[in-house]
Each structure stands twice: as structure tokens, then as C-alpha cells.
Amino acid sequence: MDKNRIEGALDQAKGTVKEAIGKVTGNDRLEAEGTADKVAGKAKGAVGEAKDAVKDAVTK
């Protein structure tokens, strides 16, 4: 598993927590940061998946 996939999952989890805290407290900025972290995490995860796919294709 590529490190980007792991980092992406962590970013998504962090973003989910920030977003939830922002909603509960009414902090729009924190909620937006959480949403941005989730999007960045998804992007990192996609990069990691692509790298894994390339590695698998090369080894076969």
C-alpha cells in the first residue's frame, strides 16, 4: 500500500472530525477547513491508488 493512500485516509478522517466540530460549534471556518482536508485526502488517496496500480502492472 502506497504511503499516499495512508496519508489520504488520515487527512479524510481529520477532515471529517474538523467538519463535525465546526458544524456543532457553528464555526464555519473550521467546517470549511474540514471539507478541504477531506477533499485533499481523497486526492492523495487517488494518487496512491494510481501508484499502486502502476506498480502492480509493472510487476505482472
From TrEMBL:
Domain called CsbD-like: residue spans: 4-56
Gene3D superfamilies: YjbJ
Top-level taxonomic group: Bacteria
SUPFAM superfamilies associated with the record: Hypothetical protein YjbJ
Family: Belongs to the UPF0337 (CsbD) family.
Protein name: CsbD family protein
Pfam families assigned to the protein according to its UniProt record, in alphabetical order: CsbD (PF05532)
